[in-house]
Amino acid sequence: MASVTVWYDGACPLCIREIALMRKLDRREAIRFIDIAGPDATCPLDRQLMLDRFHATEDGQLLSGAAAFAAMWRAIPLLRPLGLLARVPGVLAILELLYQQFLKIRPHIQKRLKR
User: Per-residue confidence at 39, pLDDT binned at 50, 70, 90?
Assistant: First the structure.
């Protein structure tokens, strides 16, 4: 049974590539990946909100942004050290700032990958 659930945008070329890599690394199948690109997708929050930011659950807690990435990393043995590092005071705040900056350039990256 998956210990982490990840919601992702299956219509986003960048997201598809990243999730493909995470699936490959998730040899224990500890993560349940849910594509929310389709209009019939079930989401715990507003669908557009979930498409705008990365979301995951860990131990029943809904996480967003850098915290969601850290939860996903903790579920994958190879990436677990990064996920644990995010629990060090101040590190998650820095990762969240970096994630917010990434969100500003994400549309440009998506456009390039669609070509």
Answer: confident
